[in-house]
Amino acid sequence: MRKLIVKEKEAASVCIRAGDSAPERYAGAELVKYFSKIGIPAGDGVAVDIRIDPALPKEGYAIRPGDGEIVIRGGSGRGAIYGAYGLLTHYAGMRFFMPGLEKLGEGDILVDEEYVYTPVFEQRRIDWQCGSCDPDWCVKNGVNNPAHTSLPEEMGGAFDYVAGMFCHTMARLTGVPQNEGQPCLSDPEVLRKVISGVREILAQHPDASILSVTQNDNGNYCKCPKCAAIDAEEGSPSGSMIRFVNAVADDIAKDYPNVVIDTFAYRYTRKAPQITRPRPNVCVRLCSIECCFSHPLSDRTCRQNGAFLRDLLAWNGICDRIYIWDYVTDFSHYVPPFPNFRVLRENMRFFAEHGVRGMYPEGAHNSAGSGEFGELRCWLLAQLMRDPYMSETEYDALTDEFLEAYYGAGWRYVRAFIDWTCAEAAGSHMGCYTAPFDVIPADAYLAMEDTFDGWWDKAEAMAGDRLEYVRRSRLQWDYIRLMLHPDLEKGEAFRLRAADAKARWDEWWGDWNYLADDLAASRPEEK
């Protein structure tokens, strides 16, 4: 049984007082549930008063201990819920690692100082199926825009795009199929059609807050004389895109003052225009698909990342609302190692320091199970979106907490494998389509083969009831071993194990080299 001590006074029980709204009642019920789990019953002891205070930032909260009470105030229903979980995590040390895997903390719960929290990012989206399919996990971990589920009103609702209008929406709005290029953005009829489509969608979704008007997923943009002249004047094809999106945003601004029109800075539109500025009701989502993910995005010595940094700085100079679409998995090779754990914290801090207001680190969204470290990455990124300024020490401590809870007593052997792969990858460039041996050479793996076998064997032997998790993550090393020593029979056994773990293992050769060459061609001065 744990002790709750408020301002040096021990409380034998808690009296939860919540407001009348569904989110306030939900927050109060969660506090009752989790206090009872650690042996602190509901009663007439210390009062925990949880309510909405519109004077606070919308998703922010404040926890203030007083004489015989704890006051929790949230700027909205979701802010109040976050305040309840803030009491449990900040003071009681609880962790909500994965659905069904939680840590209740230990020792006395000392509530003796005020804690105030305001999110850095207004939108926090995540898409690993291991976490974002579960609304309970999402709200506990501060994810307000889950990709695979919605958050009901009692959980504060979701900060979400209009359904079906999250990305690559030009096909729907203009009728130009995804695989047949892009519409002509200087054609008045195309603009009329898009405005009409946007207005029709907003009429059907009167509570909408953000809607995407984004290019199709190909590089075949219009080069007619009018579009080419605009792009030449602006120094980038983003010129014609931003002028077009501004026209849409201007048309709806009066009738829908709370709606933001979102567009991409993606591939050929990634470089900011030299003249036109996005309207205040326009959001630019900058995409890092060409970048190197073994080096921090702030690393000016890395060619791909140096170009991205210049683009972010340019957009930051002309746009008030920048969101990021980041890439944190290998979309050509889902199972083998993607050793980017050393840069996740630095990149998130980099985004926060450069005025970014929304984050979407895209993961293995189309794989129900992870053969790598998807669960760890999913949880860590949720924590980083909540606190992008955490220190390296804090980040390492959170990593260890998860590994111990998820993999059991042999977690340090798993940590050793992560540290080795990250250290080896630091000497290479790693894109989100790069083949495994282009990051870490086969010879380096061969030299460590016996060591890795020993580490994973020990992790399995010490796993206890976490054996399934260890074996699923070991698939990445088994994959590498098969590449080092091809064997048809073992390969078929591996395929069946991956299928049983629901880990996507089939591969396709992505266009990383094309993307890198395409970026270089658009930056001749940087060659």
CATH topology of the largest domain: TIM Barrel
Q: Output the CATH class name of the largest domain.
A: Alpha Beta
Shape: globular
- Compute the number of helices: 19
What's the gyration radius in Å?
25 Å
Q: What's the layout of helices and strands?
A:
Elements (H helix, E strand, L loop, with lengths): L3 E3 L2 E3 L2 E5 L3 H16 L8 E7 L8 E6 L2 E6 L2 H15 L3 E4 L2 E3 L5 E3 L3 E3 L5 E4 L2 H4 L2 H6 L4 E2 L23 H5 L13 H17 L5 E3 L12 H10 L3 H16 L6 E6 L16 E6 L15 H14 L5 E6 L13 H13 L2 E7 L11 H13 L5 H16 L3 H15 L10 H4 L2 H6 L1 H13 L5 H18 L3 H13 L11 H11 L5
Parallel strand pairs: 1-9, 3-4, 4-6, 11-12, 11-17, 13-14, 14-15, 15-16, 16-17
Antiparallel strand pairs: 1-2, 5-6, 5-10, 7-8
Helix pairs in contact: 1-2, 6-8, 10-11, 11-12, 12-13, 13-16, 16-17, 17-18
Q: In words, what does this structure look like?
A:
There is one protein chain. The model is unreliable at 509-527 (pLDDT under 50). It is built from 19 helices and 17 strands. The protein is of the alpha/beta class and 527 residues long. The chain has a 7-stranded parallel β-sheet, with helices on one face. It has a 5-stranded mixed β-sheet with strand order 3-4-6-5-10, covered by helices on one side.
